[in-house]
Here is the input.
Amino acid sequence: MNFSERDLLYNWHPYTQHKTAGFHPAIVKGKDALLWDENDKEFIDAIASWWVNPFGHSNQFIADAIYKQLTTLEHVLFGGFTHDKAVLLSEKLMTILPSNQKKIFYSDNGSTAVEVAIKGALQYFYNKGNKRSKIIAFEDAFHGDTFGAMAASGISFYTEAFKDSLLEVVRVPIPTSGNELRTIALLEQLVATNEYAAFIFEPLVLGAAGMVMYQPDVLEKMIAICNIHKVFTIADEVMTGFGKTGKTFATDYLVNKPDIMCLSKALTGGTIPMAITTFCQEVYDGFFDEDINKALFHGHTFTANPTGCAAALASIDLLQTDEMQANIKRVNSSHLAFEQKIKQHSKVRTTRVLGVIFALEIVTTSAESYYGSMRTQLYNFFIENGIILRPVGNIVYILPPYVITNKQLEKVYVTIEKVLEII
Ligand SMILES: *Cc1c(COP(=O)(O)O)cnc(C)c1O
Here is the structure.
């Protein structure tokens, strides 16, 4: 048996109905935007392995930093101790984060970053003796799969089985073109009740919803409204962070900054699982007290793992090189040119581009579901053609490593054009 067959003896994969799923290609090697399976079939990783890998697979610079750290100090507990790499990484983040972000809390993945953000907002009000137990989020939001993050998420089949056990969350529509006024009016109504601790959002792009985009000016207004009513704003930049939107953070497009931010995915260049929740001074001050019970009693065994911090430091160095910034611009220009070419196609309903993100909605007759039949047909066609793309229903999106070559990008575009002819 090969690895692909042996895999199914023991492994239970994420978001997978194993009865109908079949075998998974076993990837044994990666370099830059390419992956190879055990039969030497080559794939272009056009979604950066779930949005984590901007600088390419098996990146030597990050690998060297990790190796050096592993042979110097692989791990030390962060309870009662600190270490040089956590200090250096926090200092580095302070130079790239919005200037109102003052405190860094480390954890392991995007969901835990969101848990920490939500717990921070809820306990802030509890500590003040002014309990608020509800939060506001977007319809079709995705914030992760642990209970707090799941409660904030609005994609119903992810959360349906657990809906009676979740934190209370009230939803406002995504303020896409035409919805702005409805969203703002509803938000104004909600925050005026003083029952909500926070408004959590994916800034400018909702990834898992199918790269749904909205404009900075409406988010600007929403943050201003929350500020007036002292409802904390949480920007979940787990997907958008570290260059994906063309700026370091999506919130860099805004003048009004969020109170809390969640980072993960590209933070370590797709090498070591790590996440960060950043806070403005006001949230931190709500926990700063003689009373130990007012502390944030949250932590993970691998909090601020030194190897993860070393990987993140190397990743941010790479992001800041002229070469990587030029790559981001190159991918963006290439997407815009493809958008011009494809948007009039009779099978294309809409297209959108921001930074390295491209999305295209295919015309359907019925409401195509997240994991529906068209999705399966598209996915299989791409895999057969050596392209890793994971359409969301009838939405095909590209979010490649920034180092993808023009030739590889062209192959992705051509394959999308081909699929439009057969779908
Ligand atoms: C992926 C994602 C998460 C969850 O991150 P995990 O590491 O999968 O737990 C949270 N928020 C957003 C916006 C994401 O894209």
In short: The first strand starts at residue 27 and ends at 31. The CA atoms of residues 203 and 284 lie 23 Å apart. The mean pLDDT is 97.
